[in-house]
Structures are given as C-alpha cells and as structure tokens.
C-alpha cells in the first residue's frame, strides 16, 4: 500500500522502518517511488560556491569554517558574469537546477546580497531553476529572493536536534527551523536534508528524517549527504560509512516523504556505481552534477552521464511546479 502524506511520524515508527530487512525496505520504497514519480527521471543539479571560505560558523564537518585549519581559504565573492557563465555551462551539460552557495552565517543586507539577487535573476533568464544556500535569513530577505525569481532555498537540518549541539555551537537547531519557515512563508520551495557519518546514532538519523517529514508541507527537496572527511576539520578522522547505510536513508526518506525529490548529494565520490544505482532504485531522483560540490570532490560529469544511461533514466526538464500551492503556503504559516 502506498502511504498518504503524513506529518505525524514518530521516531519509533521510522526506526522500525529503517531497520526493516534491506530488500523489504527497498521494495517498499520503490513502490512508493514509482507511484509518485512515474516519469522515471532524474534531475541534474549543479552547485557553485559564489563566496568561498571564511565562514564564522564552527560546523565540525565544514572546511569553509574560519575555526578550522583546512586547505580551503577565504576568497572574494564571484562576479555576476562569472556565475552566469558557470550556469550556462551547467545548462549545456544537462543541468536544470543551478544552486549558488555562500559561506555566510546569515544573509546581511547590502551590496553582497544585492549581487546574489542579480545572480538569481540571471540564472532564471537562462531558463534554469535557481537555488541558493546562504545561511540564515529573515522574512524580508526571503521576500526579496522570491521577487528576484528564486525557486528553492537550501538550508539543511544536518542532524537530529539532540546531536546538533555536538556538531555546531555557533547557532541553534531552532534557528534552522526559523529560516525554513521564512522561506516557506515567502512562497519559495524548501530544500532541506542532512548528513550521515558524523558520529550520530541511528536514532539521530531517523529523528532528523522525522523532523523533515513532519514539516507541513514537507520539503520539496531532501538532500541525503554522507560526510566528506576533510583534513583540518574536527571530523576528519571519522570512518567512512557503509554504502548500504546511505541506501537505507534514501529508502526511508522516500517512504515517509513520497512526493519530495530525494537528492543523492555529498559523499557520492566514495560510492561505487552499483551503490549509486541502488540509491536511485530506492528512491533518489536527483544528483548534484559537476566535478565539485562547493569545495569537495564529486564524480565527473561523464561518469554521471554513464550512470544515468546505465539506470535507464531520463533527465528531467525544469519542474512545472516550482512554487508551493497557495494551500501549502498557508499551512506553513
């Protein structure tokens, strides 16, 4: 039976689902997936760092934090024409969503934010979906992004509320949720997921998914990331995850968030082709495309093109439903 959209998932329910024998879990996720995503497509997204390094946050996984001694150094913000040239190249290679990231704790009004707004307008003029990840923002800033044409805002929960304080001390979990509310209330679609492999428990992983699934409306996009271990960060010595742990997370996300686009994100470079195909089979229907994700490695575009061909998938054009329904927006207020 295919599940209806629910916003009352409990940790015990999701943990039981997560621990289902793998083939049963994947079969259930696949059934949900083909019902809600019958077009057999995958969306290709490209992510570009428009302002790299020097972030005042102390996220333990992030090489862009000014608290850590990593190979990533602070750089000046890219110019608009540089970003639009990168977006045009991404479109030529098949990407339909272009996401721009800035290593900021929060959006601050001024020339830098004005430049981001210009980037958004330019990306939209190319016929791409525009997404940004800029840290925390307020209602007025979200409204300005919406007016510029922004389709989606990425702001990951990262992990569970309980584990969050072990990863980040410079902001609170509830501030993450407040940003998601500002985005939703502005009529921008929500892109929010998390990272596994940061020393969290299985319950932490499941609780993060519960938090996302119980948002009303649920996020339109849910990135599932595996930790990319970077020298100089506090988590550099963490062991790699078993690829099947990522498969389980994708499958659970698909079951409890049936209409969301589940994005197979950071950490793919450490997965072999077969593991990635299993994630796609279990419900992932988007990948970040290009040789870098902000500052960390990603599979080569030719490898991803072959992956899509091997899976027999089609590349999805820009979505016909980029913004939430009016009824969805009111439910989020």
Task: Describe the structure in your own words.
- By secondary structure, this protein is of the alpha/beta class.
- The chain has a single domain (11-332), classed as TIM Barrel (Alpha-Beta Barrel), CATH 3.20.20.
- Helices cover 40% and strands 16% of the residues.
- It contains twelve helices and twelve strands.
- The protein has helices spanning 11-18, 22-36, 80-92, 111-125, 139-148, 161-167, 173-185, 202-213, 243-256, 273-281, 301-311, 326-332, and strands at residues 41-51, 97-102, 129-133, 152-154, 189-191, 194-196, 221-226, 261-264, 284-288, 292-293, 296-297, 314-315.
- Strands 1, 2, 3, 4, 5, 6, 7, 8, 9 and 12 form a ten-stranded parallel beta sheet that branches. A two-stranded antiparallel ribbon has the order 10-11.
- Helix 4 links the parallel strand 2 (97-102) and strand 3 (129-133).
- The longest helix has 15 residues, at 22-36.
- The protein is globular, with a radius of gyration of 18 Å.
């Amino acid at each position: 039976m295919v599940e209806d959209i629910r916003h009352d998932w409990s940790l015990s329910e999701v943990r039981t689902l997560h621990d289902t024998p793998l083939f049963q879990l994947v079969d259930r996720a696949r059934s949900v997936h083909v019902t809600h995503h019958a077009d057999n497509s995958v969306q290709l997204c490209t992510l570009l760092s428009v302002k790299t390094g020097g972030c005042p946050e102390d996220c333990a996984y992030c090489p862009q934090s000014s608290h850590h001694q990593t190979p990533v150094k602070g750089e000046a913000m890219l110019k608009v024409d540089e970003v639009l040239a990168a977006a045009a190249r991404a479109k030529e290679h098949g990407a339909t969503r272009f996401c721009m990231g800035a290593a900021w704790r929060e959006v601050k009004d001024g020339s830098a934010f004005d430049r981001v707004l210009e980037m958004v307008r330019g990306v939209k003029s190319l016929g791409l979906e525009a997404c940004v990840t800029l840290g925390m923002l307020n209602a007025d800033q979200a409204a300005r992004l919406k007016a510029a044409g922004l389709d989606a805002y990425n702001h990951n929960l990262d992990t569970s509320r309980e584990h969050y304080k072990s990863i980040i001390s410079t902001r609170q979990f509830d501030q993450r949720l407040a940003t998601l509310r500002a985005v939703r209330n502005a009529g921008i679609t929500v892109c929010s997921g998390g990272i596994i492999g940061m020393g969290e428990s299985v319950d932490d992983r499941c609780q993060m998914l519960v938090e996302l699934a119980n948002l009303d409306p649920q996020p339109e996009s849910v990135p599932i990331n595996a930790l990319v271990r970077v020298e100089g960060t506090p988590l550099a010595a963490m062991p790699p995850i078993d690829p099947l742990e990522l498969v389980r997370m994708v499958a659970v996300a698909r079951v409890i968030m049936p209409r969301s686009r589940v994005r197979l994100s950071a950490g793919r470079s450490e997965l072999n082709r077969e593991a990635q195909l299993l994630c796609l089979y279990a419900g992932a229907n988007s990948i970040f495309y290009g040789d870098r994700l902000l500052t960390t490695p990603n599979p080569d575009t030719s490898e991803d093109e072959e992956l899509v061909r091997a899976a027999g998938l089609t590349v999805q054009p820009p979505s016909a439903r980029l913004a939430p329904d009016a009824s969805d927006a009111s439910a989020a207020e």
